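Before the break, one more example. Copy the sequence into your notebook; we will annotate it together after we see the structure.
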Amino acid sequence: MDFSDNNMWRDLLLQAVLILATVFMFLFMYNIPQKFFSKLRLRNRADMQAKRHFVQGAQLLSQAKSTFAKDRSAAASLAKSAEAEADLAIALDPRDAAAHILKALALVLQGFKTSALDSIDIALSPLAVKSLSEPEKADALFKRAELRLAVSRRGQVDSVVEDLTESVRLKGDNVKAFYLLGDCYEKKGLKEEAQEVYEKALKIQPNFAPAREALDRLNSES
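Here is what the structure looks like once it is written out:
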């Protein structure tokens, strides 16, 4: 093979490389970005739909709460509808803790506290909790503490104390969280700790009767 043949094969190889490069560039420019933007559009659409279901569910839950004292049957029906909207929001965006919390609150109004606790657990899981602000996380921890005590599971007091301690650390103006923490300390026989948090509750709200009564009782026992 002479020198001209070598040049010919080299030119053909170079042309083949250029053609392949052009094809890959074409695929990159017209296929990959298209798929990416299609996925992005679908994701944004799903987020919008999830938010719409959440808002509808929140409105239904608000109606259920306002109706509860007058007509529990109607309130339960509204709460069930709120739960359904929460489920739709969760299906579209399972990492949104707010939708799981909405479902939990709707379940509470229906009397399903154990199921509500499961939903709160999901909201506070590593997958979802990042979507909550610190005050929102504090409220969720407080609600989980209430539910854990309500379902009376064995060994719950220690985990309730953990939730409440973190809740008041993140949001230091929840008088009910301080009071509930004091009540848990009393159950554990930690009277000094209970007295301390009852006093903190009264600093936030001096006329909060449950904390005042608990503190007076502890003082009379000492």
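The chain has ten helices and no strands. The CA atoms of residues 56 and 94 lie 17 Å apart. Try to locate both features in your own notes.
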